[in-house]
Records
---
Amino acid sequence: MSAPFNPSRRRFLTASAQTSGLLLTLNLLPAAQLMAQADEGEGFMPNLFVAIDSDGTVTVTCHRSEMGQQIRTSIAQIIADELEADWDKVVIKQATGDPVYGDQNTDGSRSVRRNLTRLRQAGAAARQLLRQAAAHTWGVPVDQCEAINHVVTHQPSGRSMGYGELAQTAASQTLPDPEGIPLKTRDQWRYIGKAVQSVDIDNVVHGKAVYGFDVQLPDMQVAVIARPPVLFGTVRRLNDEAARAVAGVTDVIRMPALEAPALFKALGGVAVLAGNSWAAIKGRDALEIEWRNGSNARYNSDDYMQQMLATSRKSGEVAREHGDVDEALENAAQRITAEYTVPHLSQAPMEPPAAAARVSADSAEIWACTQTPQSTRREVARALGMEESQVTVNVTMLGGAFGRKSKPDFSVEAALLAKQSGKPVKVLWTREDDIRFGYFHSVSAQRVEAGLDADGKTVAWLHRTVFPTISSTFDASQTYPSAGELRLGFADNPFDIPNMRLEKGQAKAHVRIGWLRSVANVYHAFAVQSFAHELAVAAKRDPKDYLLELIGAPRHIDLPGAGVEYDNYGDSLRTYPIDTGRLANVVRIVAERAGWDAKRAQGRKLGIAVHRSFLTYVATVVEVEVDERGSWRIPEVYVAIDAGTVVNTDHVKAQCEGGSIYGLSCAIGQITATDGVIDQGNFNDYLVTRINQAPGSIDVHIVESDAAPAGVGEPSTPPFAPALCNALYEATGQRIRELPVPLRLSLS
Amino acid sequence: MKVTVNGKVIDYSGDPQMPILWFVRDELGMTGTKFGCGMALCGACTVHLDGQAIRSCVTPMSVAADKSITTIEGLGSEGEHALQKAWKTHNVPQCGYCQSGQIMQAASFLSQNPNPSDSEIETAMTGNICRCGTYTRIRAAIKTAAEDLA
């Protein structure tokens, strides 16, 4: 039975009786802004579910994917807090891909920032219904009934009933206006803002958590695919005799050839199906394929970088401008120019992509480690010629993702093979598949020029960025960086410089380009924060003091007001201004915690960088020690983060530790291509941080704040590489403008 | 051939070249042991063979004949291993995918070196990659477990 509510109000919450208790449906606002062309659909009225059973069990449905950020725990914390639920009685159910849940695309560091208030209101509304149910049962006023820790008590008489006992009655109560229900004050929070332990930790340490790779279905075949080595290549000739002869191999299937744009379609090639993973891998090794490579075989990443650098030396299209940069440069006492390059990177989650599919004539079911179950559903439906309603997408645990699993191509492969073979199929990507056939972090060339006056103050700033755009994956004709990428650490430059011009240059993509943790912030922060340090050196100033001077006085930067196309990560500038006061604050805090001005142990030097991304402010200090052979290590790292209101302090710390180490991996790794073929294939040639390279300690300070919640998963990654390179400069006098950073510097 | 897995004797007549990884995952359905690289470069697949940590992705079944395999599912069969407890004390896991390999590697290491130095821990764990970057907590948890076992 549906609870009545005022139809003139925006539909928000509905309550209905389940067989055994209360089911609260929370309708969420449509996602304010879409992240990219590839994002979820729009215009729907999404919702979430909180269910309370008659035994008192509270089931929270988590609509975001769990990839290590502990979002399953955070979402439950938020709802349970306002619901005043006993944490031990809360269970989490993972949502399938369905627009009714609202935006499910778990990227852009927005799970908490887009859901905190709404989920609090949902918990509070449920709690209010339970109070009403108790009042109704006892025939007393609601305001005499308090709901605390899973029990409603009538204060004057001391009578009490548990949530489970009240669930049925609660479902028939008139739903309160959720916006009229007072939310708890911060001092009343029981779970929010606390270091609640992950709900999944027991399963993880006992090997019981189920990831995409782990899915087993009755009669399931395992498939591995030989994909064209060059993007948009095709099979010219196939001999599968030896592959079919491998014991356990059941079928060899040619995938449809991929045509531009790449989108989230299967890459093509030849699939080998077998009764077990080992036979499938051996079978693929036995395939003899002659490929037709096509025009991307001209792609050589070294030459390409030179072309991009040449582009960066010429005027580009202006993305932001104020003052007169040319005149200011002309009149400057000192002119400094630097060029920065960053190679392609691979997200390389520990679990490579994997998806299982079962397809019948009129339905399909997918199990996948996906960040994006809704676009998985859409793409699978499209590939199979079905309606989305015929496709169910089950989200497993994700063994890391970092943006790779926001692309559903691997689920499409599984669906196509399950359809063609008539059996359930699990597609496994080996590590080589993951590294060679990914959606790569874009390759970047940037040129920055600045003019300093006689006092060493920066008076002119000209920055050009050139990189192949993610948009090319969706529209092959796109060659300019998109506004959505420029806002990531480029157009939103926070420096208070009277003359500034930011320009973008063209580059055509030859591989699939995609999102990687913090996306274009990685290379933009590297250039801007390295160059800030170069300017401090030129001005003979302390780098931290000079950085604060560049940031300038506390103010809100109004980019749209200055005519800059800027969407502020899809959230309003009123709630989330570009606040240089908060930016400077994290710089001061991190410097103090790191003992910036104190004497350090012999041979140890510090570097600093600060960056705002995903509406969060992060400053990082990296301490390095370089030995006489040029090998470096990182004894200490300090991070100060202002992410506004935080839900779980330990998760935030963990994300800053991990985001820093991911930033270190971004500084030492590289993907290159020769004749269109990716040169790297596994962890022997694609370097990622190992424990012996990891910082000895990472001190994370979370700025206490009542501000609106901001992103947490990504913002600690961008400042790491520039802080590291600035420290290495302090230690060696060697400026690293070209990533990757060699593990051993050649000291002159 | 006969092989013991987590204390249970099993007859195996399949491909002797099949890596132990795929045997325990596909044939026994125990998926706690993970695939990460297939080349003994990342340690996600670490199990014990007669108590010694090995990379199961490159170790063929023929090597396991008449030997005993322990996987994460069989670690601490009498309750939770000190490392599993320490992993929880320090909230080590993020995505968790590499953690069974990390724990199995650390368990074998601690059984041979119950009182390790920081650099010994680092050397022992260098072959195990964690992309989430839980390394500082892994170090701390191994020390806690070592104290607990002492």
Note: The mean pLDDT of chain B is 97.
---
Amino acid sequence: MYVAVKGGERAIENAHRLLAHERRGDREVPELTLAQISEQLALGVDRVMAEGSLYDRELAALAIKQARGDMIEAIFLVRAFRATLPRFGATEPVDTGNMQIRRRISATFKDIPGGQILGPTFDYTHRLLDPQLAEGFVPEAPATGETSSAETPRVTDILAHDGLIEPSPQAEADAPVGDLTREPLSFPADRDLRLQNLARADEGFLLALGYSTQRGYGRNHPFAGEIRFGEVDVEFFAEDAGFAVPLGRIELTECQMVNQFKGSATEAPCFTRGYGLAFGQSERKTMSMALVDRSLRARELGEEVSAPAQDEEFVMSHSDNVQATGFVEHLKLPHYVDFQSELGLLRRLRKDFADANTSEPLQEAAE
Amino acid sequence: MTTVAELPPGFSDKVLSAQATFRSVMNAMARPGTVQRIAASAGAPSGVMHGTAAIALMLFDHDTPIWLDGAMSTPDIAKWLKFHTGAPITGDPAIAGFALIGDPKNLPALDRFAFGSSEYPDRSTTLILQIGSLSHGTAYELRGPGIDGSTVLTATIEPHDLFDRLAVNAALFPRGIDVVLVAGEEIVAIPRTTRLAHGKD
Amino acid sequence: MAVLAQSDAAEISARLRAMALPDHKTLREPENGLVMVRGRIGGDGAHFNLGEATVSRSAVLLSTGQVGFGYTLGRDHEKARLIALCDAMAQSDDFADAVEQEVIAPLRTAMIAKRSRADAETAATRVDFYTMVRGEG
């Protein structure tokens, strides 16, 4: 049976008006500004930038406001916006070794050169709700300490110096770099594409997969070699100017996991690595990313591929929350015709069943 | 040789001009054989027709490698394209997204360009061919999707055997080559599905 | 130009307003776009695409022939144009010193002060294990 779907325009228009009204909420309550969202819900903004795959704090704040705090909806809005802009090119690779560090910790060495720097972190808080924050709380000015000019080398560089950890894979400077926003995914995918996919992947999905590797589904024996967060310079080779121009700075979080060693009769054993990098302060995300990056290297490292976190097709095809929500949520769109045909089939089968088994017809509940 | 400062300008109004040009090209592709006018005002370096310049400003970018034939391979054209579109210029027509042909008489064999793949037939080279006229010359009767029955295109086209060469599109489909003919401000699209009404296939 | 890209458009504008500007025209109308930000596998290896960032760019031509390019993260057209203007002035014998002294130097000082403040706040959170172990009060 054909079901007409015209006639919804008025209802849709009014639903949007109602949405705008609900989004604003009680008009006695002051309206949120984008600056408030960006400054006071900064980690939410970071997540929308990372998974929206677009670094722009103001746009991410606007998306959060428009989406009423629904993060996946906000990420969707940011992805849609990015499709409206032309791309000028790719930046020079950012140098995380040269980061202006805001936080930097290692779980592998207590005394790392440059020190353990806690920065602004929830770690060591008691996770007790703080009633003071409910209204008008003015925090103390941050303490200041003596800055050090000591280098803060990556922990992996220190291990690499002694050959204790595998080197990062290298490529020619002008080698093509896979881009899943330009070329559709195909498998097997190289590590550049996997990292791009993981960098914009849903944090919850990565967290669950990373957790699964710790619980034995693709165990890779990780240590958090180093986690660092801070600002890096972004440079871009401008074709029109003919030289590299500075674009400004962005905040990044980087995680270096030190993992289970490999070795062979001909190669001395050394630790392996998993890598995580994301926009903003995204520690949970980058740690999960590094775990999953390492588990996806199972094939390359000659390990048995048996767990979901080691299956790149499974991981990469389901990591994107915009794609996932699109397919899950499309189920609420009208499927009247499909359903009618299923219903027709079911009725016929039930009739056949009834004819074959009994002279009494089955009760039709929904008739 | 011109410096950056002396380069002809791009679109006078970037957004509106690009939108208007897009619509003209879209209409041309949707109605093969019909003449569309490019109204947007844009600068163009010597040797580049107005229609070609507008198409370049609208469609070319960082991700579309461009191949230039001998007539288009001047430093001024290369500089203008680089400044306004950022598109990389390639010496290999087989990887070009677009090819600008200023000397159509010497159009290379079509198989030197990209025909796309069966999975991604869109990854083919679109030829932008500057020709003598889109109002005088030989009458070509065309048919195919987007044409109600048949339509007549009157044009002075080089190379003379262009439509014979494009017959390869019938054999290759869905792979193939799309062509945009440009004469001054006028354009006509010959997408890969368009055939001569009395052609061989 | 790194200083300008990291400064507020309003501050660049205020400083430029206070000086005599050369005759100039806009060679490239400011426009917004994206750049793909690249990282390195493992921090020091082969490149990969991390995600995009918004960028605004412009180009300015002085009547004396110098061309300036302005690029900055974000979507602030005016900021891109102002950076392009400063870049062009920095190439002009008549304006290079003035733009350095009146615009770039003070903004650089402010930028360094801001960074030093952040570094000092960060330094206060550095763990001093030695002191903890000693525990002599």
Note: The longest strand of chain C covers residues 24-40.
